[in-house]
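Please think about what follows:
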Amino acid sequence: MQRAPLLSPLIDAGPYFFDAQSATFGPDAHTVLVSGNRDGDGDILTLDLRSGRLTPLRLQPRGARSASWSQTAHRVLYLSAAGGSFFQSDLYTADINGEDSRKVDVGDLHVGFAGWSPDGRRIVFNTTGMSGSRQIFVVDVDGKTSPNSHRM
C-alpha cells in the first residue's frame, strides 16, 4: 500500500483568524484566490505562492465569498449577501485590486454559485427558486442581455 505524501498547509493561521472555504489558482499559477471567513464576514484574499503573502481584496459590498478569476486574471467574480441571508446573494465583478466593483444585473434572482465562461464574456450561475426547483442561468457580464434559464 502506497502512503500519501506529507503535505504542508499553505495557510495555517488557526480557526479563529481565517476559515478558508475555497481556493482557485490564478492563470499565472503563482497566485491563489482564497475565499473564506474572518470576523464573521466573508473575505477574499490573494495568496502569492512564491512569497506566502496574503493580501485581502477590499471588495464592496462586504461579505464577499465564492470568488473566481476571469481567464485574463484582470477581474474576479464573487458573491455577496451584504445585509441579507447567505442564500440571497448578489453577483459582482471587480478588478484584481478589489476596486471597480460592479453588480451583475440578474434581476430578482438570488445566486448560489457562479463561474466565468472561457472567453470571460459570460457568467453561469445557479439559483434555487421558492418552490425548491434549481435553475442554471447564463448572463453576459455587461448585463445587456437577460439571463437565459435552464431548469434542472
Observations:
- The chain has one domain: 20-151.
- The chain has a mean pLDDT of 76.
